[in-house]
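Structure tokens please, single chain.
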Amino acid sequence: MLTLLGTALAGCGGRQDNVATDDTSTEVTCEVTADTRLGIATGNATGVYYVVGNALATQLPGATGGKVTATAAETGASVQNIEQLVAGKYDIAFSLFDTATDAAQGKGSFGSPQPVQALARIYDNYTQVIVRADAGIESVADMKGKRISTGSPKSGTEVIANRLLQAAGLDPAADIKAQRLDLTKTVDGMKDGTIDGFFWSGGIPTGGVTDLFTTQGDKVKFIDITPLLPKMNEINTAYQTGTIGKDVYGTPADVATIVVPNVLLVRENLDANVACAVTKALFEKKDELAKANAAAGGISLETADKTDPVAVHRGARKALDDLNAG
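Here you go.
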């Protein structure tokens, strides 16, 4: 039975028993001497987390002399990722920075501070709020009474969606007909008319959104959410302004929006040499990750350690120091 359980965990990308716990009394060398298999928690299958997570899993063996291998798994994203990371189901987790700060501080979806640290801040996520052109929605406030997808349960998208609705004076539980759907089902609902609009937080381009604009054209459109930024910043200063260029999805003009960085998280007791090796691979293989999705091109050493109040793991700190020195 134990053997079967271990096999099941391997198949779904779960944590493997050979991931060593960090011994903080030892020096970080970045050398992984034992064969190590990692589980990476990503997000929806048509989102960027999933694409970049799989690309990272593909690159890790070559970057570590075959010592580190990984499996990326589809998940509900940020909140669920952190919960399952802490529970030991995964070893690395993609997360929106606002959700990660909530976890570190024991706020929002988390009742107490969580034992997570960062490998690095990576690329930015763009809040993409899209509606059917015939739905009569010009702002978030206009969503009252409409059928709106707020993202997968326990996702970073759901966190941002609910905060935007509240910032617009709406009660997410009562004022909209909330559809808590993943991106694939959301796009299908937009196509068949069963959903009036949706929130999505992801890197650009996001495959599911590209599909929607390619097939629906001017039947769908973005709405401007930037007037809500001041209220969003009262909740978390991670939210910033950004622009989705018109060439990303073939829109008539550039789209102003709210962006939030992403971070790669690990448990604070992950073996430091493993954390160091993975962090080095993230930057050394950046070009390969960007081939999988252009969003990964936003990964930068200049911002990698800008994760406060989420602490940088000591193994990742060694990797970033080495990379900056080189």
